[in-house]
Amino acid sequence: MLRNPKVKGSRAENELADTLWERGFAVVRGPSSGGGSRRRFQPDLVAIKDGRVVVIEVKSRSDEGPLYISAEQVMGLSEFAKRSGGIALLAFRLRGGEWRFHSIDELVPTGASFRLDDPASGMKLRDVEELLERRHRDITSYFKKEP
Question: Quick check: pTM over 0.85?
């Protein structure tokens, strides 16, 4: 039986959104992520925690090997992250595995697409959370405490 790739993609996006929500993120799934042509890019997920924005393109599959992502998706993700002041990440999960996260800076341009050589490696979710914590400093930490 052939499976609809859009259903598989939606399932992966929803599973990651649920995982992020359980870890304290506010999460929104792009209403037309994976849809046809549109005037502006919408990422698969936007996750926010402690004021830090993470813009995510979600990929999953059952076989190993390099992953190719269209240049349009990568450039759109980068632009959305820039406009939101967020971090652009690619989230990947091999069937039965755990989520791995990659900065779009790791992608290698190949012309009409970008390649990620080892998508099953990369940061774990806890690494992403630590990255966000290191970049976030509460504004009250700048104020002197009076004796």
Answer: no
